Amino acid sequence: MYLTWLDNNSWLMEIGGQRILVDPWLVGELSFGLDWLFKASLKQERLISEDIDLILLSQGLPDHAHLPTLKQLDHKIPVVASPNAAKVVQDLGYISVTCLEHGESFTLNNQVEIRALPGSPIGPTLTENSYLLKELATNFSLYYEPHGYHSPQLKQFAPVDVIITPTVDLALPLVGAIIRGTNSALEVSKWLEPQFILPTAAKADAIYEGLMVNFLKAVGTAEDLRASLEKNNLTTQVLEPKPGDRLKLALKKRAVTC
């Protein structure tokens, strides 16, 4: 299994010989329509020209279903998406779009099973997707949730080998954490006992502007999480990739217990 972090929530996952592009923001600016409040731009654009087997979208918001990026990617690439994100790519003219409700699954080229589970709440009535990916030849598995909202349904799939989720809180005064990592990363690690956990929703090669940026505060560190994992007798390794680094994860087969 190879994982390449492309900054923020964007990942290239190489699993079961398949190349899966997740929540790609690779070119252009990121805007939610109120630039005075929040706007972001990449220091380095990373549009991928190599073959992509699937685009996987967890949410329909611009930081996950990023219009400038999706407009430039080949519209013949199959897409698996939450219902909200599926509307975005369908409107752009993507040819093959599979919409996954919570509990539904999709198999990519007989190599990777992708299961949608409840993820981040967006407003009072909408809950977006998290995903559990399983490499069918080895049963190695990966769980992805970009805002730190983990459904108890996950417990039935334990153990899971790799988790990609926020590992620190990103908080606003009076509002609290809008990205949850400090406690939720430890909680989901207790549930799933992963071999590796990698942070997402982090910024590295991006420039952030607007009023909101002045009030956002990061709470917690990777070292804090490592200490909490050790205190709870978990051997999970916390990895901190740099944007563009292609990591090979040396996963170990788990002992079968009766």
UniProtKB/TrEMBL annotation:
<dbReference type="Pfam" id="PF13483">
    <property type="entry name" value="Lactamase_B_3"/>
</dbReference>
<dbReference type="InterPro" id="IPR036866">
    <property type="entry name" value="RibonucZ/Hydroxyglut_hydro"/>
</dbReference>
<protein>
    <recommendedName>
        <fullName>Metallo-beta-lactamase domain-containing protein</fullName>
    </recommendedName>
</protein>
